[in-house]
Amino acid sequence: MFYITIAWAILYFAWYHVLEFGYTSTDEYQKELNPKYTKEMNPNYKPSSVLTPYRSVWYKPGGDETPYSIAMAGPRVSFVEERPEDEPEYLALTEPAEISSGAAIFKQRCVQCHGAAGEGGIGPNLTDEYWLHGAGINNVLKTVKYGVPAKGMIAWRGFLKQDEILKVASYVLTLEGTNPANPKAPQGDKVAR
């Protein structure tokens, strides 16, 4: 087990820090901030001297290129990872049992930031006509699912199932116009319905 750990550490170091193929924690953070984040590779990147290929005394620049030297001289592989733009269109749930289930999830997970009645707190007021990240079930669902890390809202996709996210998003839509006490000032764009 000890030797396997050493071998794993060497592979890990090479993959993430020498070859830079994998997403580092900084890249993962950037992906959370910007869903369309693409890891940009430095075109002038040269691997560390640890991987510098052996060159004979008869080496002639450009004269004895190997696949390795060609790969190291040219642009690096670019990673493209985006959220699917073609997510299905959702319809807001309207069944009382589903809305009630969404309310229970909201009370368990969301009141700390949005208030018990959705009046806002750390998070925005969910009862007015103003929306920071778009109105409608699909925008609310995406906000809940992917979060807004730059504003402190976490992505709930790792904690809630898809049907639970749909239920809580549907419940959030029912809060509009409820006029709770002490509402937070409007934020975002007004969306009249």
Explain the overall architecture.
The structure is a single chain. By secondary structure, the protein is mainly α. The chain contains seven helices and two strands. A two-stranded antiparallel ribbon has the order 1-2. Helix 4 packs across helix 7. The longest helix has 17 residues, at 2-18.
Question: What keywords describe this structure?
Answer:
single chain, 193 residues, mainly alpha, two-stranded antiparallel sheet, 7 helices, 2 strands, 38% helix
In short:
The chain has 193 residues and is mainly α. It is built from 7 helices and 2 strands.
Query: pLDDT average, as an integer?
Result: 80
The first-to-last residue Cα distance is 62 Å
Helix/strand class: mainly alpha
Give start-end ranges of low-pLDDT stretches.
Answer: 74-82
SSE order and pairing:
Elements: H1 2-18, H2 25-33, H3 67-73, H4 96-109, H5 111-114, E1 130-131, H6 137-146, H7 162-174, E2 189-190
Antiparallel strand pairs: 1-2
